[in-house]
Write a structure and sequence with these properties.
The protein is an alpha+beta fold. It has two domains: about 5-105 and about 125-235, Metallo-beta-lactamase, Chain A, CATH 3.60.15; about 240-300, no CATH class. The chain is built from six helices and 18 strands. It has helices at about 45-50, 65-70, 95-105, 110-125, 190-205, 225-235, and strands spanning about 5-10, 15-20, 25-30, 35, 60, 80, 130-135, 140-145, 150-155, 160-165, 170-175, 180-185, 215, 225, 245, 255-265, 270-275, 295-300. The strands form four sheets. Strands 8-9-10-11-13-14 form a six-stranded mixed β-sheet, with no helix packed on it. α3 runs antiparallel to α4. The protein starts with 6 loop residues before the first strand and ends in an 8-residue tail after the last strand.
Length: about 300
């Protein structure tokens, strides 16, 4: 059903990218075992599509527990996920965000109430499924027969975000753990500096292991592995009060969602970071009062007039 919404593209020998709904899933085809990384929104019969490309038992993993990556879990019996992103624990940052924002708008207009309820349903639909979740800690290996895939924990986008290493193909699949349009605001517990430290530690661990390129789940082009440490430098450079787009979300009146970018000729495009201002380094300067109904604001740091 709705499988016309999905497309399949070969990325490498034994590696297929499944496209659709602005998110990529990756299928690693092996002789002994095949691995599907992420399940998308669940709008199509993904198991049926996958079955046409594999002859070995399938293992399904989530790079992290967000609805665009785990919404299709309900169509699979078993899914592997990092313990920090395990559903039903009551500790997931994204669910707390949805609840906080939803509660803040429930007493507003019918349109906003509809948006809040819809966001909640993205999670409840997956919750009601009878999927069995298996913990997938850092270092987990999946033996495909002709090669092995290795899971590495890279927290930032969520507490349990993971990347998948394909040593034989010299490729890293980062999910949303590191990409050109990075969402840090979905994990308010962590600062940008802490995330940058995680990126540098991961890069230093793998930089001499022969990896040549990386793919994420929202950008079609491959990137250089050095993007990891370059984005770390960008994240570490962000300060409270930097010129940025600021969005005042319901439920977070004193902590705007900020969007800051930097062009990178080396990586042939922009680096974007979405973060709560409290996650940036430094002290926030005093700001002018914000108009009550204006959502987006381009606000540079306020400069004091010379006396």
């Amino acid at each position: 059903m709705f499988n016309f919404l999905l497309g399949v593209k070969k990325l490498d020998q034994g590696v297929l990218r499944i496209t659709g709904a602005f998110v990529f899933r990756h299928l690693f085809v092996g002789e002994k075992q095949s691995v599907l990384m992420d399940t998308g929104y669940g709008i199509a019969d993904l198991p049926k599509l996958v079955e046409t490309y594999i002859d070995s038992p399938l293992t399904v993993i989530n790079s992290h527990y967000h609805p665009d990556h785990s919404g299709g879990n309900l169509r699979f019996k078993d899914v592997h996920i990092h313990p920090a992103d395990m559903p039903f624990t009551g500790e997931l940052s994204i669910e707390h965000l949805v609840h906080t924002i939803g509660m803040a708008v429930m007493d507003r207009s019918d349109t906003r109430r509809f948006v809040a309820k819809t966001a909640g349903k993205l999670f409840r639909r997956t919750h009601r499924a009878r999927t069995n979740y298996t913990p997938m800690p850092d270092g987990t290996e999946f033996d495909l027969g002709d090669r092995k895939l290795v899971v590495r924990w890279l927290p930032g986008h969520t507490e349990g975000s993971c990347v998948l290493l394909d040593p034989d193909r010299h490729t890293i699949y980062t999910g949303d753990a590191c990409n050109t349009g990075f969402w840090m605001w979905t994990n308010p517990k962590m600062t940008l500096a802490e995330y940058a430290d995680n990126l540098d530690a991961f890069y230093n661990d793998i930089k001499d292991q022969g990896y040549e390129k990386l793919y994420n789940c929202h950008t079609p082009m491959a990137n250089k592995v050095s993007f990891i440490t370059d984005f770390a430098a960008f994240a570490r450079s962000i300060r409270k009060g930097d010129r940025a787009v600021r969005i005042h979300l319901p439920g977070f009146p004193d902590d705007p969602l900020c969007i800051r970018g930097r062009m990178s000729l080396k990586h042939m495009g922009p680096m974007l970071c979405f973060y709560f201002e409290s996650q940036a380094a430094g002290d926030a300067p005093a700001r002018a009062a914000l108009p009550g109904k204006k959502l987006l604001q381009l606000l540079p740091p306020r400069k004091e007039k010379a006396e």
